[in-house]
């Protein structure tokens, strides 16, 4: 259910009945303080200004027409003309009763199903995945899960960097290793090392660079031997990424891969189309598009190179082909691409050119979703102690080791095996939540201590809150909790606050997918868990002097809370457990 939409509809109807213009919007927002109710309609002020009339008088007229007594126990006009809405406890109870036991009912399946093509993770296969790909992978995966939960048709695209000139040197090196009887799996066990070796040979060894260039030509020309070698390289490298996805609990699979190589045959036709339409022009031997929309302050257009002077294609050419494929073949309503913010100009250029060329119709949204950098404690880009790039797989292993120490310290009644399983979920959850909870557009400082704390907005806190609710529910042994929906009543203020929060789940999900902002869900879950703790203190459940009626209602509310926490964490890709 969408609380905000329900209130918007009610106020809107009253605005129309009061004779306000039909484009006037109620602007429903959460009230910042309890004395101003639960929600506020702030839209009257703007309308009054336009109509040059007294906003308070106008608000009174709207309230006089408002039919909301079933939902609200009180409506007040405050300040210059805000309408404050205090929700009705029995209505809240009814809403909780009707959605009970099936979290799916919390969210109405969308009435407009969009085909959403989501490009995320997209590592370069020549090297190991590094922390830069962490953000793309987990933010993208959370948004994908949220879109799917709403009922959208999601097509994942892992736009892996599996093509390009660097493969010449890698294949030449691999060829030599295989010739000296090494098997590909061992040779490529550490991609970082392998890349380094190849690079040293490329820079220092006589004749190697020329052979590397020959390999590029052969590869692009479709030479069978060379393709076979390339395929081996790619397969092993993909396996490395898959290990990371598995560890990270990310939904990407092999069938979601559509790497750069998949567009190889489209590149020449794309350039031809751009030149035929006079969008790309020849400039110093290269093909470029001059983009006036992105001109600098001196009026010089932004230059977007789409083909190099020797005829070679570029990252840009591939992205133009990808844009066309996604809009036309996959029939996307929305195309979302998750990369770091440094690629913002690139995608801006791709979009402008692709639209000019008619590759993406007006009805398709092209959304580059940029994110900031992960920084070390020193405030500089996150690196190893010796200044190297941090391998993602190693970072995740460290998270699990650190979580294990934390769990072992607190563990009562947990076998070694259980501790390992919990450490896995807590360690990975901590890394994910710490990242997802920041507004993605800003840089953030990676800090083991804060992310692995049981206090504050962290995964361990939420996972622990979940086990708390779970243990309360399991202690109420002779009751079948999932049949208690009709027992729900809302009395105490703490219950009321918790109930409203629970019912806001869909509003939050809507804002998460509208702008690809999972941090809103992170904040919501933290607030929800905190409200539960407050509720539990004020409204005891298992104590002897609690009436059966109260106990059943409170158990049902707890059950609701557990479902929402679990569902929310699932969408973030964070696992829960029953005890820790
Ligand atoms: N492989 C690129 C990188 O590691 C990211 C690709 C993103 N997607 C795209 N369509 N360009 O930076």
UniProtKB/TrEMBL annotation:
Residue positions of motif 'HIGH' region: 123-133
Question: Which residue range or ranges hold the DALR anticodon binding domain?
Answer: 462-580
Database matches in Pfam families: Arg_tRNA_synt_N (PF03485), DALR_1 (PF05746), tRNA-synt_1d (PF00750)
Domain annotation Arginyl tRNA synthetase N-terminal: ranges: 1-87
Subcellular location, in the record's words? Cytoplasm
Q: Which GO terms describe its biological process?
A: arginyl-tRNA aminoacylation
Q: Which UniProt keywords apply?
A: Aminoacyl-tRNA synthetase, ATP-binding, Cytoplasm, Ligase, Nucleotide-binding, Protein biosynthesis
- Complexes and interactors: Monomer.
Any one GO MF term held by the record is: arginine-tRNA ligase activity
SMART domains cross-referenced by the UniProt entry: Arg_tRNA_synt_N, DALR_1
Q: Which reaction does it catalyse?
A: tRNA(Arg) + L-arginine + ATP = L-arginyl-tRNA(Arg) + AMP + diphosphate
Q: What is its EC number?
A: 6.1.1.19
| Name recorded for this polypeptide | Arginine--tRNA ligase
Q: Which domain of life is it from?
A: Bacteria
Q: Which gene encodes it?
A: argS
Record-level GO cellular component terms: cytoplasm
Record bears the keyword Methyltransferase: no
**HAMAP family under this entry?**
Arg_tRNA_synth
What the record says about family reads: Belongs to the class-I aminoacyl-tRNA synthetase family.
UniProt-listed InterPro entries: aa-tRNA-synth_I_CS, Arg-tRNA-ligase, Arg-tRNA-synth_N, Arg-tRNA-synth_N_sf, ArgRS_core, DALR_anticod-bd, Rossmann-like_a/b/a_fold, tRNAsynth_Ia_anticodon-bd
Q: What is its main location?
A: cytoplasm
Task: Give the transmembrane region(s).
Answer: none
Coiled-coil intervals in this record?
none
């Amino acid at each position: 259910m969408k609380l905000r939409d329900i209130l918007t509809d009610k106020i809107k109807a009253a605005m129309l009945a009061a004779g306000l213009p039909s484009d006037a919007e109620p602007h429903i927002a959460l009230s910042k303080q309890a004395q101003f109710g639960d929600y506020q309609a702030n839209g009257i002020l703007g309308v009054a200004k336009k109509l040059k009339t007294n906003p308070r008088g106008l608000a009174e007229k709207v309230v006089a027409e408002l039919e909301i007594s079933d939902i609200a126990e009180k409506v007040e006009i405050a300040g210059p003309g805000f309408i404050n809405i205090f929700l009705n406890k029995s209505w809240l109870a009814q809403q909780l009763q009707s959605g009970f036991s099936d979290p799916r009912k919390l969210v109405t399946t969308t009435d407009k199903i969009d085909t959403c093509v989501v490009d995320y993770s997209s590592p370069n296969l020549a090297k190991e995945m590094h922390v830069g790909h962490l953000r793309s992978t987990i933010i993208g995966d959370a948004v994908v899960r949220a879109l799917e939960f709403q009922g959208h048709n999601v097509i994942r695209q892992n736009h892996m960097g599996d093509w390009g000139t660097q493969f010449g040197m890698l294949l030449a090196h691999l060829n030599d290793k295989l010739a000296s009887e090494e098997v590909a799996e061992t040779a490529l066990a550490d991609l970082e090392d392998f890349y380094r070796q190849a690079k040293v040979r490329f820079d220092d060894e006589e004749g190697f660079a020329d052979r590397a260039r020959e390999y590029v030509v052969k590869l692009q020309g479709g030479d069978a031997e060379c393709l076979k070698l390339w395929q081996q390289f790619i397969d092993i490298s993909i396996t490395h990424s898959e290990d990371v996805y598995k560890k990270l609990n990310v939904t990407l699979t092999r069938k979601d891969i559509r790497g750069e190589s998949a567009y190889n045959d489209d590149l020449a036709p794309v350039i031809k189309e751009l030149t035929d339409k006079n969008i790309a022009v020849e400039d110093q031997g290269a093909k470029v598009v001059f983009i006036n929309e992105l001109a600098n302050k001196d009026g010089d257009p932004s230059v977007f190179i789409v083909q190099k002077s020797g005829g070679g294609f570029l990252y840009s050419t591939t992205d133009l082909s990808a844009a066309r494929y996604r809009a036309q073949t996959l029939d996307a309503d929305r195309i979302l691409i998750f990369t770091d913010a440094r690629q913002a100009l690139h995608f801006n250029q791709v979009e402008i050119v692709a639209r000019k060329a008619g590759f993406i119709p007006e009805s398709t949204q092209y959304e580059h979703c940029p994110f900031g950098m992960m920084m070390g404690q020193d405030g500089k880009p996150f690196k190893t102690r010796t200044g190297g790039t941090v391998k993602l797989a190693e970072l995740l292993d460290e998270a699990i080791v650190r979580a294990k120490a934390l769990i072992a310290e607190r563990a009562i009644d947990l076998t070694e095996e259980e501790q390992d399983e919990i450490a896995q979920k807590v360690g990975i959850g901590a890394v994910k939540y710490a990242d997802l909870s920041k507004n993605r557009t800003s840089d953030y400082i990676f800090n083991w201590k804060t992310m692995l704390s049981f206090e504050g907005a962290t995964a361990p806190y939420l996972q622990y809150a979940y086990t708390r609710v779970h243990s309360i529910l399991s202690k109420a042994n002779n009751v079948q909790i999932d049949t208690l929906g009709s027992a729900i009543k809302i009395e105490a203020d703490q219950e009321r606050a918790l109930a409203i929060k629970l019912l806001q789940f869909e509003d939050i999900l809507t804002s998460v997918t509208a702008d690809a902002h999972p941090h809103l869900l992170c904040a919501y879950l933290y607030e929800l868990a905190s409200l539960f703790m407050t509720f539990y203190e004020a409204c005891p459940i298992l104590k002897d002097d609690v009436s059966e009626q109260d106990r059943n209602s409170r158990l049902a509310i707890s059950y609701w809370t557990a479902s929402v926490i679990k569902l929310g964490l699932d969408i973030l890709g964070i696992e829960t457990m029953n005890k820790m």
